[in-house]
Specification:
Largest sheet: 6 strands, parallel
Number of helices: 9
Helix content: 40-55%
Structural class: alpha/beta
Order of helices and strands: HHEHHEHEEHHEHEH
Shape: globular
Number of strands: 6
Strand content: 5-15%
Radius of gyration: 18 Å
Strand order of the largest sheet: 1-2-3-4-5-6
Length: 242
C-alpha cells in the first residue's frame, strides 16, 4: 500500500529461508504504488525502495523468481498499463535492472491476466532480454454456459491459454501459470475446471516452468466452500498422482 511498507518487509524472505531453505519462492513485486506514476518509477524516483526489496530477497533467496507488475492488462492495480504501455515497459525494465544488481540468479516472470480485460498485454511486453517466463493468471468465473463451453472459451478466447502457448512459443520462452483457481467473483464449485487445468498442465509439462494454485480467497480450497473442487484437486495433484 505504500513505499514505506515495502521498505519494512525485509524480515519476510529471511523467515521463509528459516522455514524451508530448499523451497523455491515466487515473489510478486508491485511495480508502483497509488499516487506514483509508472513514468516516475521509470525515471528512477523510487530506485531506493526497489533496491531494499531486491537486496532483502537476494540475501535469503538469490535464485528466486520475481513476478514484477503482474496483471498489467487489468485496471485494478496502480501499474495498469492500458494507455501507458511505454511507461510500463520502461518501469519494468528499470526494476529488473535493479534486481539483477542484487542477484544475477533471479529469474523474471511476466504475467498478464487471462481474457479480454482493459488492454492488450502484447502492447506491454517489456522484451525478451528482461523476461524469462511468460505466464497467465486464470480463474474460473461465473458463466451462463455449461462448464465445458466456458472452459473452451477460456482456452480459445482472447488472451486465453491458447494465446499463452502461441505467444510464449513466438518469443522462445517457457510458460508459467502465475495464479489459477476456482471461485472468482463468487463462481460456484467447479471441479471440471480443476480437471481441465490438470490436463492442460500435464499436456504442456515440458514447456511449463511452474504453476501456482492460488490457495487463498477467493479460491481457497480448505474453507469448505468448494468441496468438489478440493476433492478433485487433491486427487489430481497429490504425490501419488504425479
Amino acid at each position: 500500500d505504500s513505499w514505506a511498507e515495502m521498505a519494512k518487509y525485509d524480515w519476510v524472505p529471511a523467515y521463509w529461508r528459516r522455514r524451508n531453505p530448499a523451497r523455491m519462492l515466487i515473489w510478486s513485486i508491485a511495480l508502483t504504488m497509488k499516487g506514483t506514476s509508472l513514468k516516475e518509477v521509470a525515471s528512477g524516483a523510487d530506485d531506493a525502495d526497489f533496491e531494499i526489496a531486491a537486496k532483502s530477497i537476494a540475501a535469503s533467496q538469490p535464485d528466486a523468481i520475481a513476478r514484477i507488475g503482474w496483471e498489467m492488462n487489468g485496471d485494478w492495480f496502480p501499474w495498469a498499463a492500458g494507455g501507458v504501455e511505454a511507461d510500463y515497459i520502461a518501469a519494468y525494465r528499470r526494476v529488473v535492472g535493479i534486481f539483477r544488481k542484487a542477484s544475477r540468479r533471479f529469474t523474471f516472470a511476466w504475467c498478464p491476466g487471462a481474457g479480454p480485460l482493459n488492454s492488450s498485454p502484447e502492447l506491454a511486453y517489456p522484451g525478451d532480454d528482461v523476461v524469462d517466463t511468460i505466464g497467465l493468471d486464470i480463474y474460473d468465473a461465473p458463466s451462463a454456459v455449461a462448464p465445458a463451453e466456458a472452459w473452451n472459451s477460456g482456452l480459445e478466447g482472447p488472451f486465453g491459454l491458447l494465446w499463452l502457448e502461441n505467444f510464449a512459443t513466438r518469443h522462445g520462452k517457457p510458460m508459467h501459470i502465475g495464479e489459477w483457481g476456482v471461485g472468482l467473483k463468487d463462481a460456484p464449485d467447479n471441479p471440471y475446471f480443476v480437471e481441465k487445468m490438470s490436463e492442460w498442465l500435464r499436456r504442456h509439462a515440458g514447456a511449463i516452468a511452474f504453476h501456482v494454485y492460488f490457495d487463498a480467497p477467493p479460491s481457497e480450497l480448505d474453507n469448505g466452500k468448494f468441496p468438489k473442487s478440493r476433492e478433485r484437486f487433491m486427487k489430481l495433484f497429490s504425490g501419488a498422482a504425479r
